[in-house]
Amino acid sequence: MNRVVAFGSYVGLLCLLAMPAAADDLVYLKGGRRVRGSVRSEGPTEVVITTAEGATRRLSVDQVERIQYDGPTGAVLAQAWFKERAGNYEDAVQSYERALRQAPEGSFVRIAAEFARARALAKWAQVDPAKATDAEGALKQFIAQHRNTRHYYPALNWLYRVQLALGKTDVAQQTLAELEQSPVAGFQVEAALARAELLMRGGNVDEAAAILADLSGKENLSDELKLRIRLLMAEVKAARGEVEEAVKELRVVIDSAPPENETVNARAFLTLGRVYERADKVMDAILAYLYVDLMLPEAAQYRAEALARLSDLWARAGRPDRARQARELLLQEYPNSQWARQLASSTQDQE
Question: Distances in Å between the alpha carbon of 235 and those of 173, 241, 274?
Fold first, then answer.
C-alpha cells in the first residue's frame, strides 16, 4: 500500500513539474490596489487576468495604472518606469529601448515597453520641445500598429498634448475628437477635461466651466478625476478673478491629493502660486512655488515653470541671491525648456 501511495505521489510530482508555471504578473490599479496573477488578454477596454486564487478578473483599462510583468524584461520595464516617474526621461527612454530589445515580438510586455517609450518621449518634450517631433512620431506609429491594445486611448491622449505643444491645433482637435469617442468612461472624462482646458486657453472660460459642472455631477468617478475636476474649477475661478474662492478650492485639492500623485500636487501648488501672484501676494506665491521646487522635483514640467517664476519673484522681494539660484537651477536642469528660453531672452533684453 505504501509503495502505491509513494508511486502516486511520484507521478503527481512529475505532472506538476511538467506543467508550465503560471505567470506572476502584478496589476497596479489607480487608487493603490493591486491584483496578482496571470494576464490573459489586453484590449482597448479591458484587461483579463487569472488571479493567484484561480478566479478570472476583468479590469476596465481606465482602472489600470501599470502592469509589472513576470520575468527579466518585466523587471527592466519596472526599473524604467521608476526613472520616468522621477523625471529622468532620457534614462527612462534608454531603459524602455533595452526592454524592447529583450521582449518577444507581439508580447504584452513588448507592447507596453513600446508605448512607455513613446509616453516618456512625450513627457520629455514638456521640458525639451526639441523632443516633441520624436514623441509625435513614436505615438503615431504606436497608434497605427496597436489600436486593439489597452494603451490605445492613453496614446491618443498623449498624442493630443504633443500636437498641441507643436502648435498643430487643427490636428490636435481631430485627435481629441477621436479620444472623445472612447467607450471607456474614464477616457471620456479625460477627453472632456482636455476640452475644458483647451477652451480656457482660448479664453472661453464660461464654456469650460459648463463642461466641468457637468463632469462634477457624474457618478463613479475615481478620486483622481474628482481632484482634477476641482483643480480645473479652481483655475476657472482664478481666471474670473475670484481669488478667495480659487484659493479655497485649491486648498481642498492639496489637502485631498495623495502624496504620490506628483502631477496633481505640483499643478495645484503651481496654480496657487499664480493666483497669489495675480493678487500681488508675493511671499505667498513664493512659498507655493518653492513647494513645487523642493518637494516635487519629479514633476519636471511644473518645476521648470516654478523656478522661472521664483527667479522673478525673489528679485521683486529684494533677494537677488535667491533669484540667481533659481535662475541657475532652471538653466542647469531644464536648459531647453520654454521657461529657460524665455528667461535667457529677457536677460539679453535687459543687457
Answer: 22, 10, 10
* Mean of all residue pLDDT scores within the chain: 91
Provide the strand spans (E) within the chain.
25-29, 34-42, 46-51, 56-60, 64-68
Name 311's Cβ contacts closer than 8 Å, sequence gap at least 6. 323, 324, 326, 327, 330, 343
CA 347/CA 239 separation, integer angstroms:
29
Site of grid cell 481629441: 176
Give dist(CA 95, CA 121) in Å, integer: 12
**With 50 as the cut, is the pLDDT of residue 109 above it?**
yes
pLDDT tens figures, 152-195: 999 999 999 999 999 999 999 999 999 999 999 999 999 999 99
Q: How far apart are CA 216 and CA 275, in angstroms?
A: 22
Exposure on the CB side of residue 279, measured as CA atoms within 13 A: 21
